[in-house]
Amino acid sequence: MLFLDRCRYCTVDGFLWDSANADVVVDMDGGTGGIGTACTLSRLLMGNGQARSTFVGVRISETTTNNQEYHLVKQVNINGFDSTAILPGISISASSSSAHAASAGFSSGDVGKRIRIASAGSGGGTLDTTISAFVSTTQVTVALAASATVTGAYALIGEAVGTGIRIGPSANAKRIAVEDCNVNMLNRGIRAENGSFQSRFNSFFSNETNISIGNLTEPCLDLGSNTEKSRQHLQTAAAFPVTMQGCRFDLEQTAPGTDYVSGTSSGKITIIGCSTENALPDSSTYFCSGDGFGFIYTLIGNNFGSAMTMQQLGRFAVDSPHVFINNQNVSDLPKEQFLGGGLFTAAIDPGAGAIEGRAISNGSGSTPDFCAGVRGEAIALSGHAFDAVACAVQAALGGGGSILNGMNYRGVDIQFPTSSLNQHGKLLEGVRVHSPSGLTGSALMDKATGLIIEEMTTGNIVGLGVGIDQQGADDHNYLAGRTFQGAPASAPSDSELSASQLSFHVDESGNNLLVRVKYSNGTTLKTGTIALV
What we know:
This protein is mostly beta strands.
């Protein structure tokens, strides 16, 4: 409707448009297109009254060679068209096209509309299809049969159409600012395919995706966004970082199978000081994800107002150093800042909310570390339980510090540093190590994986457990004070003894204490008998 061709420093202010049959309301590449710089669009009202899927409110740099930069879109109200309805309690059977609602929710006008049913699609994903026939207010026929049976599932009928602000494919669409705008009921609120832009203090309502980012050439900022009832806030495929700060997110209408914030490339999303309102609608929805290899999330100081679990918080790329610091209301998310080159290089375990079954890398592929260079009175790890994790700890302690304090470890391999410790430092303090319960034949210390506490330089070693080998000719087993040792009523198996080891047992019927010894050659075995009176 309005074409701006080769404009610099011009202002368009105070217009109201109903697009009627127009595809584009304001086109910054009007006519043949060309260079445009620092234009301002302000106090405009535009709408998509005819529900046109091709509607675009403001279009910038549609031509790939055009240089459109430093434009400001400010206090613009763009209204699209949204007929989306939310239906809980949907049931559908695998291989069936008949969808049923627990209560009346369908209408004859739904025929031809998009429908998304949580967990009924291939691999337990979303069934995304259209309604082909209306049967009753509680039943419709869908065009694509379900791949999985679901009961009581969450569904969306319909979708918003059109685009609010489109920053086109030109890499020269630089530093576009969208500020204090209301962007409502659109398929894409802001769609930035290239270049760079900033979103500042905008309000988004009932959009399919509030901000969609393609191949940016510079970092992007989303500052102070306020959202209501949108199905997704951010989707990015950019390698450059995207920072979201001071935003408020309403999660109640997140689309089935959707991540409210989604990264699909080897980029980075940093979320700082944001808050959420309303819970995610069901278990098929997540707050954020980064599925691309190397995608990194940094979440700092956020408040998730409707408490969620680590599983609901997101699906994170494996082998990326995600960082989570001081986030509130995530029931099983560590809130401490961890040091070292990498944090959470393994996927987060949704069930345990801890770290899933692999060592934590320092980012260089060498010896893993969890906390490196902890000094002074710091406690490297305190009060956390990690199940079945091969977790290596390297730390240099200063005066009075301790590596492990009051912890409950199950099946954990702890490797202590080779550097010398301050004389006041403590390797283990109040640590309880035990095997899982209910396992037939399990033992607290079994074979070579018993407990060995080894001095860092030379000298004494304490070795407890079955099958622990001699530590070397110059080393000595040492236990201070009174000791209590088991004396079973049966002899040990000779294969369980290592060279230069012995084991006591009792012959209760003969009233004798026996000691079974294996010589240093590893083959000679002898038994001594002490009469008990």
